[in-house]
Amino acid sequence: MISSPDSPLHFVAACRLPTEWGEFRLYGFEEGNGQEHIALVMGEVSGGQPVLARIHSECLTGDGLFSQRCDCGPQLQAAMQAVQNTGRGVIVYLRQEGRGIGLINKIRAYQLQDQGLDTVEANLALGLPVDARNFILAKHIFDYLGVNTVRLMTNNPQKVNTLDNVGIRVIERVPLHVGKTQENAHYLNTKSAKMGHFAD
Q1: Predicted pLDDT at 141
Q2: What's the gap between Cα 112 and its chain centre?
Q3: Is 133 a catalytic residue?
Q4: What band does 199 get if pLDDT is binned at 50, 70 and 90?
Q5: Of 56, 156, 158, 184, which has the fewest CB atoms closer than 10 Å, so is most exposed?
Q6: 143 catalytically annotated
Q7: Could you read off the pLDDT of 128-149 as tens digits, one per residue?
């Protein structure tokens, strides 16, 4: 496992990470600007065989504070459970909070949503992109891990298209429809209607 010299990420360290869903290997990566990203790996993932994988964007409110405004926390947990069930997989965790706008701007957007705007309208009202994430970063993590073919757990066609365009073959899109509540139903419907996400 060697980082490509033209990669925007460099590998920093790895350790074991025991979790409720079994033991993962936790890999840490850093961008030149200091931004940090991680990958959770279970089993042997290099060697060319298709790997169950997820690209998960950081969501402190959902992943860490158990918010029901989104489905992020349940999606992360379901992905970890699926990797455990398979015995082999990768979860790339990109530190791109709030679809890339950052935590404080996300709170500002939530405030506008409390006033009636949807998730897309709120970002635009703040003069921010609807989605500022860079999924190409995941390609460099997959490259480092020796992964070139994946079964991707996602409802977002942009992730599939990005990986296909940069040389990571997506042989299957695995739907990940979990965590829908009365609180986030409008949010999920907006992602489907306005951002092209695959609905349940």
Answers
A1: 97
A2: 24
A3: yes
A4: confident
A5: 158
A6: no
A7: 999 999 999 999 999 999 999 9
Cα separation, 146 vs 199, whole angstroms: 31
> What 3-state class would DSSP assign to 135?
coil
* Separation CA 105–CA 2 (nearest Å): 35
Amino acid at 157: P
Q: Do residues 156 and 148 lie in contact, with contact meaning Cβ atoms separated by under 8 Å?
A: no
CA distance 107 to 6: 35
Q: Which position has the token pair 């965590």? A: 179
- Whether pTM > 0.85 for this model: the answer is yes
Q: Which residue in 138, 165, 180 sits closest to 53, CA to CA? A: 138
Token pair for residue 77? 């947990």
Structure tokens at 88: 């082999």
User: Both tokens of residue 90?
Assistant: 């990768």
Catalytic annotation, pick one of 95, 133, 169, 173: 133
Beta bridge partners of residue 57, listed in sequence order: 94
Task: Output the six-digit token pair for 24.
Answer: 């993962």
